[in-house]
Amino acid sequence: MTSPGPGANQGGLPSPESYFIPAGSGSRHTIFPGVEIRTAAGTNLMLSVVHLEPESVVLDHSHPHEQMGILLEGRLEFTVAGVTHLLGPGDMWRIPGGVVHRVQALDQPAIAIDVFHPIREDYL
Amino acid sequence: MTSPGPGANQGGLPSPESYFIPAGSGSRHTIFPGVEIRTAAGTNLMLSVVHLEPESVVLDHSHPHEQMGILLEGRLEFTVAGVTHLLGPGDMWRIPGGVVHRVQALDQPAIAIDVFHPIREDYL
Predict the structure, then answer these.
(1) N or C: which end of chain A has fewer CB within 10 A?
(2) Burial class (CB in 10 A: 0-12, 13-18, 19+), B121
(3) pLDDT tens, B68-120?
(4) Which helix or strand (DSSP H or E) is residue B29 part of?
């Protein structure tokens, strides 16, 4: 099992060794205080696991990439284009490119899956 | 909270009401015996939750859509282009379009997230 290197995301198809990405590997980024994202990139898809500490906040932002996600653990106050919902495990979101969104973790840790199209070069 | 209807996936951007997809909703399909997929579609992304009963099998198949995924619960014997790995929770996969893959659930139920680009019309 090989952890994906930068080369796995360039030059076309992943090699056979990079069909699988072991748990806990991938590229890590702390994107806001208490918010860590771990990403794996395909060709036109990026899959990520996001850990949010209690009370952490992903401030209002937008990006040209389309985003979808699902909450696995915890509770989030999630705002998309001014529409706020309180989300629990299993709830999903879909955010068109360019639409402003914000996330606030409540009083427990939260874990979410976020996916992007196209891949976010800033998260490689 | 509005469950996504077919209209949410057509005609461009989702409406504000469709930014969020409540847990347990979405479009359900039994794709192989003991294998149920529940999908939500964006514009160029499809996010799905897959439940696999013990010993269930997703037979060898391919599709032009790129696919990535992560195992949440259970154990899978996952084969991509003849490369087989035994996967546990947190392990991920990335499958370029057109590459044959197969999944075998082991002796317990499994839950996975699968994402596709572009959206799979057959899973709407």
Answers:
(1) N
(2) exposed
(3) 999 999 999 999 999 999 999 999 999 999 999 999 999 999 999 999 999 99
(4) strand B27-32
Beta-strand relationship, B76-80 and B83-87:
antiparallel
The per-residue pLDDT for range B85-94, each reduced to its tens digit, is: 999 999 999 9
Measured CA to CA, the distance from residue A88 to residue A100 in angstroms comes to: 21
pLDDT at A29: 97
User: Is B70 within 8 Å of A113 when comparing Cβ atoms?
Assistant: yes
HEC string of chain A equals CCCCCHHHHCCCCCCHHHCEECCCCCEEEEEECCEEEEEEECCCCEEEEEEECCCCEEEEECCCCEEEEEEEECCEEEEECCEEEEECCCCEEEECCCCCEEEEECCCCEEEEEEEECCCHHHC
Interface test with B, best of A94, A95, A99, A102 (most B CBs within 10 A): A94
ipTM: 0.88
Residue of B nearest to A72 (CA): B72
